[in-house]
Amino acid sequence: MKVTEKSLKFRCTELNLGVLKDTSFGIRFERTAKGYMVELQYRDGTPSKVLIQEASASEAAAAVEGVALGAVAVKDAGTGKPEYVTRETYVRQGGERCPKCQSKDISPGHLIASKGIIIQHCSCVRCDLVWNSIFRLDDYDCSSATKDE
């Protein structure tokens, strides 16, 4: 069966009103000059996540079906969503939300630095989860540094 823009629109609507309704995200596609783009749109204000871009209609449809299968797997596991967000989601959110309950009411703790890595102990005021945020050195900038004279 040939995938069309109309069939992609129908499938995204069907999923958003069906298996994705009780998740923390929805799915959308867009036709661009270079092909199709498919993205997850989070309901909590997290920036959208592009899954595929500059794709053919059949590639876009495969990405949409991958999202559907993932949502079904979470439901089959007996939860409306995973107990904790993925590491990728935590990083995309800038470490500003609890990885379990998604509250912004978190308490950052002390820092431990070693060999280009900083570990910060954190806790959630709402659900009492305790975790470590890990920061890795990836660059430096001397342009705004001033030398004491």
Description of the molecule:
With 149 residues, this protein is α+β, with helices and mostly antiparallel strands. It folds into two domains: 5-76, no CATH class; 87-136, no CATH class. 26% of the residues lie in helices and 32% in strands. The chain contains three helices and six strands; from the N terminus they run αβββααβββ. Strands 1-2-3 form a three-stranded antiparallel beta sheet, covered by helices on one side. A three-stranded antiparallel beta sheet has the order 4-5-6, with no helix packed on it. Strand 2 (35-42) and strand 3 form a beta hairpin.
Helix and strand topology:
Elements: H1 5-17, E1 25-32, E2 35-42, E3 49-55, H2 57-76, H3 87-92, E4 106-114, E5 117-124, E6 130-136
